[in-house]
């Protein structure tokens, strides 16, 4: 299958790969997995006291599209508020990366990772 | 359930795969296009249709994942093309660790022992999940069976990756 240039770029030079300490109260961790392909994605957000995402890191085991989707998301969420980040849609990701229909689930995975991270943050703040 | 009927097997997740394979070979021979070489066009077409059906049924029932998917689908729960993500943190954390371990193995100069050990770990998980799927399907707990099946897919994927590593390391 032919990957788009943007997917290849993110795959070969993934942005923000790595981890934060998940026990740090300002760190939100979202873990999601796609049973269809066995991909696993971890997205972590470093959130300021005012609710702005200062930094993001990811670790994804999966195909090129899954890696590119999570890499792109870490770039997109930086500087956004949690509410703004939660409005990122999988269709935006799929469109930006020109994902073919069979790889749409990779963008869904990335969207769900943001949501899971935000939920984790809210649960931590309670 | 049609696919089980083709092989005259009781519809159940726990099947004797060697018996299935034996019945498959017998049927394959009986409906082989060569047997119908002198038959009419409609007979040939019918035999071809039957042969295709036998192949589909065999491929579906042979592997535990597609067998469980088929039983669930026949019970009105089709998860074969779903794009649902799973969010069970402890399961996913474990999957992350397994993937990291796979990376470690691929960097080893002598991975043999580590591969064997990891294979054992994964087979144990596979057996446990398949036993759960079997129990849940028998008790008609379809949602629970589906949830265990989703996990099984991750394990099967890891096993395939590990097998690929094993093939790559020439010393085995």
From TrEMBL, chain A:
Record InterPro entries: ISCU (IPR011339), NIF_FeS_clus_asmbl_NifU_N (IPR002871)
Pfam families assigned to the protein according to its UniProt record, in alphabetical order: NifU_N
Superkingdom of this protein's organism: Bacteria
CDD domains: IscU_like (cd06664)
Residue span(s) of domain NIF system FeS cluster assembly NifU N-terminal: 2-125
Family the UniProt entry places it in: Belongs to the NifU family.
UniProt function note: A scaffold on which IscS assembles Fe-S clusters. It is likely that Fe-S cluster coordination is flexible as the role of this complex is to build and then hand off Fe-S clusters.
The protein's name: Iron-sulfur cluster assembly scaffold protein IscU
Organism: Catenovulum sediminis
High-level lineage: Bacteria, Pseudomonadati, Pseudomonadota, Gammaproteobacteria, Alteromonadales
Gene from which this protein is expressed: iscU
From TrEMBL, chain B:
Keyword Repeat listed: no
UniProt subunit comment: Interacts with HscA and stimulates its ATPase activity.
Domain J: 2-74
SMART domains attached to this UniProt entry: DnaJ
Pfam families: DnaJ, HSCB_C
Keywords linked to the UniProt accession: Chaperone
Gene that produces this protein: hscB
Protein name per its UniProtKB record: Co-chaperone protein HscB homolog
Recorded family membership: Belongs to the HscB family.
InterPro entries per the UniProt record, alphabetical: DnaJ_domain, HscB, HscB_C_sf, HscB_oligo_C, J_dom_sf
Purpose of the protein: Co-chaperone involved in the maturation of iron-sulfur cluster-containing proteins. Seems to help targeting proteins to be folded toward HscA.
